[in-house]
Each structure stands twice: as structure tokens, then as C-alpha cells.
Amino acid sequence: xxxxxxxxEFGAALGVGPLDLPSQGVVNLQWFPDCxxxxxxxxxxxxxxxxxxxPHIDAATCLALLQACDLRTRLPHEPCVQAGxxxxxxxxxxxxxxxxxxxxxxxxxxxxGVALLDQCRRDWxxxxx
Length: 129
Description:
Blueprint (H helix, E strand, L loop, with lengths): L2 H12 L11 E5 L4 E8 L2 E9 L5 H10 L13 E5 L6 E9 L5 H19 L4
Antiparallel strand pairs: 1-2, 2-3, 3-5, 4-5
Helix pairs in contact: 1-3
């Protein structure tokens, strides 16, 4: 299945209509008031990520987030969620990211990826809908 078809089906499932990659290669959607959902084509991968503001995040929360992403604690068949922190203080933002091979990506993968990222957002960062 092509990325174009997967995005079209994914957008329809979300109720926003068919999505397509613009020339910049990234689709950005507002995902809850405090969060942006992005789908990006990079080389041979599709990146699915959420970016959210976390002003004044504390060190304990950062450590818990990194521990939750530790590959050694995950089962081999589970998707690997990567996390990153950008900025500091009032400008701090966290990104939670999943990677998929571009070849054969399916709308169902994107849907389950969004559900996983949202679950991580709630469980790891205590963020409600």
C-alpha cells in the first residue's frame, strides 16, 4: 500500500477527509489543545509524532519518560516510541515519535500509532484529553 493511499484512508477514518502530503512532505494536525500530530515522509520512513508544550517540566518526569522508552524494557514485537525534549523552562516541548517503513505502510498502522502515542502522552506525562 502506498503512503498516499494510507494517508487518504487515515484522514477519512479521523473524519477530516482524505489527507495528502504537501510538497514539504509533512502533514500537521492540531491534536488536543496542547498537542500537534505530524506525519512526515523522510527517506524510506514515515515518521508519526506528537509535539506538545510541557512548560517547566521537572527532572523526575524527564527521567520517567526516558525510562518508559527504554528498549530493554519492551517486548520485541512492541513498537518503539522515541522521546525527545527541546527547549527549557516555559519553552520546553516534548516529542513522542514512532517510525514505520515507507514501503507498505497502512492506515491501520497510523491509527494504532496515534492511539499508542496518545496512551503514552497520558500515562507517561499525565496529560488528559
